[in-house]
Amino acid sequence: MPTIAQINSIKVYMYFDDHAPPHFHAIYNEYEIQIEIKTLKTLHGSLPKKQYQSVIDWAEKSQDYLNFKWKEFNKQ
User: Fold this and answer.
1) Contact 10, 48 (CB under 8 A)
2) Is the per-residue pLDDT at 76 higher than 70?
């Protein structure tokens, strides 16, 4: 589970050979969330509001990077 980014104290990562749809995970303290790359909708979990917004703001700007990393880690 490589960390692909860090937003302040929030770690963003992806698993190798993970399930569809393409998504990423973010962890902040005891919180964890899975967010779909294409729509930026929450698939599972939650983050506090401030941290959630930071992740979404970053993901909006980083969708090309997120898609590239998904393809790199999930070669099926």
Assistant:
1) no
2) no
Query: Could you state, in order of their start, the residue ranges of all structural domains in the chain?
Result: 3-73
For residue 24, CA distances in Å to 20, 58, 74 come to 11, 12, 12
Per-residue pLDDT tens over the stretch 15-74: 988 888 999 999 999 999 999 999 999 999 999 999 999 999 999 999 999 999 999 998
* Cα dihedral sign, 22-28-32-33: negative
Q: 2: which 2 tokens?
A: 């490589």
- pTM to 2 decimal places: 0.91
- What do you get for the CA distance between the two ends of the chain, in Å? 17
Q: Quick one: which H or E segment has residue 18?
A: none
Mapping DSSP to helix (H, G, I), strand (E, B) and coil, where does residue 38 land?
coil
